[in-house]
Specification:
It is globular, with a radius of gyration of 18 Å. Helix content is 17%, strand content 22%. It is of the alpha+beta class. It starts with 22 loop residues before the first helix and ends in a 28-residue tail after the last strand. Strands 1-10-7-12-4-3-2 form a 7-stranded antiparallel β-sheet. It has a 4-stranded antiparallel β-sheet with strand order 5-11-8-9, with no helix packed on it.
């Protein structure tokens, strides 16, 4: 297992993701005008191709290694939960900080398919990395991720200029707990923060009658292995249990437009040096991806 802190390296350490050499080579990764318009209207975009089969195999192997309970005390993780589920009958593995530990999950930050889409959806701005996550819902007993807005966990930063890329390492379906969205909910403003692994529908108690009507119009977001979903930091989303015979594994890249600042004098992430309130988020732990 990797022991060097890969956060010190702000470029790829492998050759997994060939970097385009010309503007023409970048075009294969560019989202269409229609895709960008869909994202802006509904707050999410599904089916963005991110990984080839050989890349999937590398990342699946790394994720499996990272679920080893003996890694719980690895100080390179910002957070490590071998089971974050509040239901003792289910399991939700959730960790932050894998980019510091394994080469493939480090290098996905510089995957041209990610950086092009993230820059476009942030309005053409330069993109900085915020933090990563891995989620693992094992077969037949995978736990829920409650409905939430990502920014409700990120209010220690401002302004709201963030984006989330959720990439599936398996085919994600309704049966094994694919993501679900409330289209247009990114226009609702900031809602209360919920327990991420608690009551799936707990957020409903905080919605207005009109929002509750929209909340009942859930849109499932199934994707194939290697495809990503991008969503706005205020878009309401969650995922159900994995009741299938297959695992549901995914990694997440959270990013923000260059210029976002710290809004706290506390550490932004566990083990990361304080960036004083009002100061720009940059440096070792918040590198440019493009």
């Amino acid at each position: 297992m990797q022991t060097k802190d890969l956060s010190e390296i702000h470029k790829q350490v492998t050759n997994m993701f060939p970097w385009p050499a010309t503007p023409d080579e970048w075009e294969q990764y560019r989202l269409s005008k229609e895709q960008v318009e869909f994202f802006n209207e509904y707050g999410y975009l599904t089916g963005v191709k991110m990984l080839k089969e050989e890349q999937l195999e590398v990342l699946r192997k790394e994720l499996f290694q990272l679920t080893d309970p003996s890694l719980h005390d690895n100080e390179l993780f910002y957070e490590y939960n071998s089971n974050e589920s509040t239901d003792p009958q289910t399991i939700l593995f959730h960790a932050l900080g894998e980019w510091r530990i394994t080469p493939g999950l480090h290098d996905v930050l510089w995957n041209p398919a990610f950086v092009m889409a993230a820059s476009q959806l942030l309005g053409g701005k330069a993109v900085r990395f915020w933090h990563d996550q891995i989620f693992y819902k094992p077969a037949k007993k995978g736990g829920v991720v409650a409905w939430h807005q990502d920014y409700s966990y990120w209010t220690r930063t401002k302004p709201v200029a963030h984006i989330t890329c959720w990439c599936s390492l398996d085919d994600a379906t309704e049966e094994n707990g694919c993501l679900q969205y409330i289209p247009g909910s990114h226009q609702w403003g900031l809602l209360p923060k919920t327990n991420l692994a608690g009551d799936l529908h707990g957020i409903r108690d905080y919605l207005t009658p009109e929002q509750q009507k929209q909340f009942d119009q859930v849109q499932l977001a199934p994707v194939k292995a290697g495809e990503a979903i991008f969503h706005h930091p205020l878009t309401l989303h969650g995922s159900g249990e994995n009741k299938s015979t297959r695992p549901r594994r995914a990694f997440v890249i959270n990013a923000f437009a260059d210029g976002v600042v710290s809004d706290t004098d506390e550490p932004l992430l566990q083990g990361v040096p304080v960036i004083p309130k009002g100061h720009k988020m940059e440096g070792q732990f918040f590198p440019f991806t493009i």
